Amino acid sequence: MAAEEEDRSLAKGSKNGTGEKADGAGADGGHDGTEEHKNGNDKGRQSLPFLCLAALGIVYGDIGTSPIYALREAFYSHDGITVMPANIFGVLSLLFWSLIIVISIKYLAVVMRASNNGEGGIIALVALLNPWKTEKKNRRYMLMLLGLFGAALLYGDGTITPAISVLSAIEGLEVATPAFKPYIVPITIAILVGLFLIQKRGTAAVGSLFGPVMLTWFAVLGLLGINGIVHHPGVIAAVNPIYAASFFADNGLAGFLVLGTVFLVVTGGEALYADMGHFGLAPIRLAWFFLVLPALLLNYFGQGAMMLENPDITQPFYQMAPDWALYPVVGLATLATVIASQAVISGVFSLTRQAVQLGQLPRLNIVQTSHESYGQVYIPFMNWVLMAATIGLVLGFGSSSNLAAAYGVAVSMDMVITTILAFFVAYRWGWFPRIAGVIAALLLVVDLAFFGANVFKIPDGGWYPLVVAGVIFFVMGTWRRGRELVGRHLQDDTEPLDEFIESLDELPMRIEGTAVFMTEATHKTPPMLLHHLRHNRVLHEQVILLTVNTLDVPRVPAADRLKIDDLGRGVYRVQVYYGFMQASNVPVALRFAGEFGLDVDLEHTTFYVGRESLIPTSEVPGMMVWREHMFAFMALNATRATSYYRIPPERVVELGIQIEI
């Protein structure tokens, strides 16, 4: 396994006799993104052109497929405006400055400096504030809730993006002949089903194809745009922001509402930040400024030129293509949208694993699909939920234009949250707080304008991602609160650990071997250990109280993986540290305990794991009974600790205990 190979290679150089963690492995180990982060892929050894090419396939899939439908929706959607030269120049100016301000300035120049040891994304951003142990009503706790709601918003986006992307690509067949219209939805569903069915194979096998396909896609975008611009070169004048200002002055509220469709051009912005850890900041920036941004601008301006030339066209993206190139463009667009969908689906898997690692969601079956990349995981439960939701959206909305009404609300709200969190991170790190405040305020004006325009989409479908986010956020809160209640109950029914260890001298029998008890790192005796002794009246010669800690950093090197304390009388406390992007593997960690002075023979080791039976009751304060039933259901169906921590089932003894919550 990749994790085992990493531990083996790194543990050799660290025999820390005290068992203390090295500096930087703590919960507050974030730093500026200017330092390259070396992950499992060791991107530092890969060439810059290769990383730029790979970034095209993963980072820019979503934003790169927006030209298929974004400009079209500004004029032909429910809230579209009249196709006339002044409006075309105004919308193009808004598109241009949206890409410059939101992507080039906000994300690439500002937000991506908020690096959590090289990693990005809203969970990594929340972790930089180290909020998990703070008291409720504390500012950092409130920011944690805000960040978790932002993460929940991305789940709605994870179902809408595949649906609208693939559907908009297949709709290009209608341009060739209306005879294809009855088959658009069935073809889209077939492609989506195939996409979700291959998820279990992972993206490693086909990932090498993503970059070249998207390189071809962006080249075609640029060429199509040039083909359109030559018909009306004066369209380039739309870069002047005066056209955007005039557009608002002339159209009033209708012009403001168009911002909801203009926003579609920047909906992939969060991916730039979330995928920073895979490629580093430099490749993402270079790919954007030297290829992606020019290709997008050429294509949007080319579509605008075609509309100036012929105001009656309804599919400006496809109608820019020569007749002979229409079917190849549709095929390439389909491939590009599948790649964009793959990147979003993989992002949902990664986000879910981070939430599970940080204790915000129940344990789920997480399958590592690559031995080289820790970021490539497959979560069966989430895969089938996403597939059902995505197909339901295609059937329910029926067209990409209808789906565009649901698209943007969640992402625009998420961008507002990202700006707020990034400001507090900058403030906490002492990054010129006043300047950071001014920058954040200016960016919030843009973010809130986009969000305000998207709010009007809520009745037409924008409610969907908000409902999804609300459900996910409520599940997170229920799980977090339920774990608090269970932990409180278990700690109440125990005794101080030092008193327990002293009493071991009176124990009539110690047997050979090692017993490992999974527990929290407290000064109390683990309840499962007391439960075991009350019933069996015997204990192994070596007892390990094992705690798995997930820190607020993406990865913890194996050299800093263990902390071992000798508590006396054959009892040891072992704390294992992982980052929130790493998979926990208890046997691998214990195998290297010898490097830190503790010999553990796994062949003669028994793992004792608690199996709590939760009994919801109104007599115990904490949550409403129906939420207690919900928590009990989630706990019952969560992946068992033995599987989650990779513990061999033949070495496990489960101790049952009933808990009233």
Q: What does it look like?
A:
The chain is α/β, with parallel strands linked by helices and 661 residues long. Helix content is 56%, strand content 9%. It has 26 helices and 8 strands. The strands form 2 sheets. Strands 5-6-4-3-7-8 form a 6-stranded mixed β-sheet, sandwiched between helices. The chain has a two-stranded antiparallel sheet with strand order 1-2. A hairpin with a 2-residue loop joins strand 5 (562-568) and strand 6. Helix 7 (139-170) packs antiparallel against helix 16, helix 7 (139-170) crosses helix 17 (380-397) and helix 7 packs antiparallel against helix 19 (409-428). The longest helix has 32 residues, at 139-170. The radius of gyration is 27 Å and the shape is elongated. The chain starts with a helix and ends with a strand. Mean pLDDT is 82; it is low at 1-45.
- What structural category characterises the helix and strand content? alpha/beta
Largest sheet: 6 strands, mixed
Strand portion: 5-15%
Quick one: overall form? elongated
| Distance separating the two termini | 39 Å
Low-confidence stretches: 1-45
- Biggest sheet strand order reads 5-6-4-3-7-8
Rounded to the nearest angstrom, the radius of gyration is: 27 Å
Number of helices: 26
Average of pLDDT: 82
What is the total tally of β strands?
Answer: 8
Helix fraction, binned, reads 55-70%
